[in-house]
């Protein structure tokens, strides 16, 4: 594995106001062992098929869902597939995997490590949250017969730690605000670190546009873009009236990435409660999006994702934290799937501009990344053996 970044050298800076993941660690997960991947505002994983690009993004999404409070079984419906292929079970026939990340923010770098048992029963068997060399939360499975782990969190009061049980199917870090009172400086430090981690993980939107689904007219509803971008026409209908400035940038992006002239991107109601999307060609001709190629549709959908925000995308950010202190992270496996070199380049340049502003981060996987990874500001993680 090789890592490179074409970002300009940075001077020593104050701690960031917006929490963001700076490293993904896969100690033992699918094809990865003892792997550490740096994450910048714009990160592209590249490498041949089977090198583990999808696995890395899947682990990141799993951490995000656990940080949002999802149950372990929902996050890992096929946990055995996450166990490294040559891993051997122990004497009790137990096997599992380990993932973790670092999030930088106002509290400085905060590290999270999670150990998951896949067999014989799916459960979290260990978790550690640390910051500044101090272990703020540590859990361990003490009694396999009980569906709990024993947790100890930093107190720094009359007792250095407080102990108590936590469920073995939820991320303990996400549960700390419900268990820690915050009466001592130590407890307040635990809560601040846990909040930083959870805010960064919850503000994640995994996106994989499905051209087949995007071609149909869609009912009007909440106007939140689904993971597969099935309801693209509905979201175009909503966003056109909400932010003319960003919509103008979307039109410019579509013009650069779609064949033929494009003067506008429209959504029109059909009278039956549904809307369909169109490209205005500027000469009286309007092209229904259903006639576009798969690459053009994926390009349009991903451009829309980069130019919108949590209020439009189907993501569950931390509602108790002001939006100005959160950064949306988009996960895009197969970012260049179906795109030609020109479209991929335009999309990465758009992503670089949006990520530079600090309101959005992108972690994507690409097949042949050589042309697009030369853009300034891109952190490239090359998984080529």
Mind explaining what this structure looks like?
The structure is a single chain. Helix 3 (172-179) packs across helix 4, helix 7 (244-257) packs antiparallel against helix 8 (294-307) and helix 8 (294-307) runs parallel beside helix 9 (341-356). Helix content is 27%, strand content 29%. A hairpin with a 7-residue loop joins strand 8 (134-140) and strand 9. The chain contains nine helices and 18 strands. The strands form three sheets. It has an eight-stranded antiparallel beta sheet with strand order 3-2-5-6-7-8-9-10, with helices on one face. The protein has a six-stranded mixed beta sheet with strand order 1-18-4-17-16-11. Mean pLDDT is 88; it is low at 7-12 and 317-325. The chain is an alpha+beta fold. The termini are close together.
What is the 3D shape?
elongated
Number of strands: 18
What's the rounded overall pLDDT mean? 88
How much is the radius of gyration in Å? 22 Å
Q: Which band does the percent of strand residues land in?
A: 25-35%
Q: Structural class, please?
A: alpha+beta
Poorly predicted regions: 7-12, 317-325
Give the % helix. Answer: 25-40%
Ends: how far apart? 6 Å
Largest sheet, in brief, is: 8 strands, antiparallel
